[in-house]
Amino acid sequence: MADHLIVLLPVAAVWVAAGVVADGLPRLDRARALRRRTGWLSALTLTGLALTTTVLLAGLQSAGDTRLDRAGAGLALAAAPALVVAVCTVRRVRRLRAGAGAFARAPETPAPHGLRAAAAHPLVGLPLQVTALATVPAVVSAAGLDLFTGAGPTGAAVTVGTLGIAAIGVRHALRHNRLAERAMPAAVASPRAAGPLHV
Predict the structure, then answer these.
(1) 77-131 pLDDT per residue, tens
(2) Domain ranges of the chain
(3) For 10-33, how does the pLDDT look when each residue is reduced to its tens digit (9 = 90+)?
(4) What span, in angstroms and rounded, lies between the C-alpha atoms of 179 and 184?
(5) How far is CA 164 from CA 26, 92, 133, 199, in A?
(6) Cβ–Cβ < 8 Å for 126, 91
(7) What is the pTM of this model?
(8) Residue 26 CB burial class (10 angstroms; 0-12, 13-18, ≥19)
(9) What is the C-alpha to C-alpha distance for residues 96 and 109, in angstroms, rounded to an integer?
(10) Which strand (E) or helix (H) includes residue 6?
(11) Phi, psi angles (nearest 5°) of residue 175
């Protein structure tokens, strides 16, 4: 077991927790619960970004083969999805929390389908879950299992990771579309469909 596993485990744990919380947001049917859970998600997301950035920067500034160097190299795969989280997800979660707060004054106020659709948007959950998945190879390698041969990952690891990300993306898109359809107002019947108008 490598010593940089101590550095990687908290980072991976925070991203996994954020991914789990984000996945459960669209299932919440009360505005107050949605607001509280988005607060947790915001805290987890900012913590994950802070930890990842700290480890990556410390690894870049450190000279030699230290614990932080190895941890930073392991997190290099997570840098791109973490950047998407910083650019897209943080803003969406902040807006979602503000929207839920507008409905959360009464404890049993239902969460509108529009808010639940926004919570199910792929740019909320997908980048968090991809970042969590991207930390797994570093943790597994630090734990002593070799996913890498030579300079790159094995074909099986790449295939499993790609299929996992595709499945997560499709799931988020389908759930978002279903909730967005419920949020749309019912179509107004045309006068022709309603029959002749009597004066």
Answers:
(1) 899 999 999 999 999 999 999 988 888 777 778 888 888 888 889 999 999 999 9
(2) 5-186
(3) 999 999 999 999 999 999 888 899
(4) 9
(5) 20, 23, 9, 62
(6) no
(7) 0.80
(8) buried
(9) 16
(10) helix 5-24
(11) -70, -40
